[in-house]
């Protein structure tokens, strides 16, 4: 039996404030030793994820922008699968909606409903850096969005309700991560994990999938894996929006909880 580990990055494998994965290194090393694929599944962009792929030398497929696309390195699988397009490095399975369309819809809603919405597309690299705590280079990579606009809403609960109903009326969806709202198409992390899981199953036969997350945008992923874990958010609490009893709650914040969950699973 082969484990496959799917993980969120921000607030889960990497610390919400420092963006460090240091606390999770023992468990990351265990996965490497045992030849268990570690698949990043995050709201981050392809450009941002590639930094982590290079640093942790995983070489495995990854899922960007809340399930917007699956990037599979060429020759990673022996089995066949259908992709949307290929680049020099990857076969890409696209599930998301084009970024410029998402931006247009969001800006139109903000204007017509008089909502104070600020997206990454409205912000400079410096502003994204200040707001997220990312360094300037990382902020620049975070702005290279393809399938998901991250934004802030400056408003009350009523504004939030208006925004949600207008997004849905436009045939689009929303989700919320640790810091931002996201406007997306039909994609979510769960759909992307399902597709990639099917390819892994073709390749390995008997597999068991593991998923780790911290926020509501991880819930679709946690629902479709065999072993779901929810780590604590930076305030030391589990996300109250996830009430599913099947999700294993880990008593540790972000990468500390991640390390505990994977270490205990593999003991
Ligand atoms: Mg997160």
From TrEMBL:
Molecular function per GO: magnesium ion binding; mannosyl-3-phosphoglycerate phosphatase activity
The main enzyme category here is hydrolase
Gene Ontology biological-process annotations: mannosylglycerate biosynthetic process
Gene (UniProt): mpgP
- One annotated Gene Ontology cellular component of this protein: cytosol
EC number(s) stated in the UniProt entry for this protein = 3.1.3.70
PANTHER family noted in UniProt? HAD SUPERFAMILY HYDROLASE-LIKE, TYPE 3, PHOSPHOSERINE PHOSPHATASE
Q: What is this protein called?
A: Mannosyl-3-phosphoglycerate phosphatase
The keyword Magnesium is assigned to this record: yes
> Gene3D superfamilies attached here?
HAD superfamily/HAD-like, Putative mannosyl-3-phosphoglycerate phosphatase, domain 2
Q: Would you say which domain of life the source belongs to? A: Archaea
What InterPro entries does the annotation carry?
A: HAD-like_sf, HAD-SF-IIB-MPGP, HAD-SF_hydro_IIB, HAD_sf, MPG_Pase_thermophiles
Q: Say which species the protein is native to.
A: Methanolobus vulcani
**Keywords of the record:** Hydrolase, Magnesium, Metal-binding
Write one Pfam family the protein is assigned to.
Hydrolase_3
């Amino acid at each position: 039996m082969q484990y496959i580990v799917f993980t969120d990055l921000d607030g889960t494998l990497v610390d919400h404030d420092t963006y460090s994965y240091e606390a999770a290194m023992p468990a990351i090393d265990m996965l490497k030793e045992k030849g268990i694929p570690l698949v990043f599944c995050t709201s981050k962009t392809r450009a941002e994820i590639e930094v982590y792929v290079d640093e942790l030398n995983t070489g495995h497929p990854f899922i960007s922008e809340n399930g917007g696309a699956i990037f599979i390195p060429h020759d990673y699988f022996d089995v066949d699968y259908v992709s949307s397009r290929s680049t020099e490095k990857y076969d890409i399975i696209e599930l998301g909606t084009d970024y410029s369309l998402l931006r247009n819809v969001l800006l139109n809603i903000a204007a017509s409903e008089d909502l104070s919405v600020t997206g990454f597309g409205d912000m400079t690299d410096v502003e994204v850096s200040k707001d997220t705590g990312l360094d300037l280079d990382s902020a620049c990579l975070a702005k290279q969005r393809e399938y998901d606009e991250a934004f802030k809403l400056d408003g009350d609960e009523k504004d939030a309700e208006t925004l949600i109903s207008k997004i849905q009326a436009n045939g689009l969806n929303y989700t919320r991560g640790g810091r931002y709202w996201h406007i997306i198409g039909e994609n979510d992390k769960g759909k992307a994990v399902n597709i990639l899981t099917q390819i892994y199953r073709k390749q390995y036969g008997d597999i068991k999938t593991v998923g780790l997350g911290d926020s509501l945008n991880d819930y679709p992923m946690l629902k479709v894996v065999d072993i779901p874990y929810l780590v604590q958010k930076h305030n030391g609490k589990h996300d109250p929006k996830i009430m599913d009893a099947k999700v294993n709650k880990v008593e540790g914040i972000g990468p500390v909880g991640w390390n505990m969950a994977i270490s205990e699973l593999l003991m």
